[in-house]
Amino acid sequence: MPKQVEVTAKLMGKKGTEQEGKPVAEFIGSCDHCFGETLEESMKLNPPEVINSCFIASAKITLQGTIRSALEKGMAPADVQEQVVNTYKPGVAAVRTSVDPAIATANRINAITNPAEKKKAIAELMALLQK
After folding, report:
1. 94 pLDDT higher than 80
2. Average pLDDT for the chain
3. Could you give phi then psi for residue 96, rounded to 5 degrees?
4. pLDDT tens for each residue of 105-118
5. What's the rounded Cα separation, in Å, for the pair 78 and 130?
6. Three state DSSP letters for 24-93
7. Is 131 helix (H, G, I), strand (E, B) or coil?
8. Contact assessment for residue 70 and residue 83, using Cβ atoms and an 8 Å cutoff
């Protein structure tokens, strides 16, 4: 018996518009088309390549979110590869990573490509350090 699953989606305003970051449309509904109660039931409703494709897509999205979180904390890309990507296992909670705040700040400033913005960020940091 197919399982009914709630499906929601929000469309956010595009960057550089008045609606930037605000929901401009929302959908809430349900679908019972191809979701089984169990893996065995899902396999009866869908071919193996569909189940595998969905599994890969879901695992990729989870890994991308974990990577984004590490980058937001200031983790260097090489460390993200070593500590996040190389240790990733689908379905297993990610190990929490700690980042040295000074290194995180330096990584964020080093990631700025615009020289004027980089100079401004350094000046703001120096002003904070002088307090």
Report:
1. no
2. 85
3. -65, 135
4. 887 888 888 999 99
5. 31
6. EEEEEEEECCCCECCHHHHHHHCCHHHHHHHHHHHHHHHHHHHHHHHHHCCCCHHHHHHHHHCCCCCCCC
7. coil
8. yes
Among the listed residues 35, 101, 37, the one whose alpha carbon sits nearest the alpha carbon of residue 74: 101
Give me the residue spans of the domains in the chain. Answer: 1-46
The burial class, CB within 10 Å (0-12 / 13-18 / 19+), for 70 is buried
For the record, the structure tokens of 105 come out as 């700040």
Residue type present at position 97: T
45/98: higher pLDDT: 45
The span from the CA of 83 to the CA of 95, in Å, is: 9
pLDDT of residue 2: 67
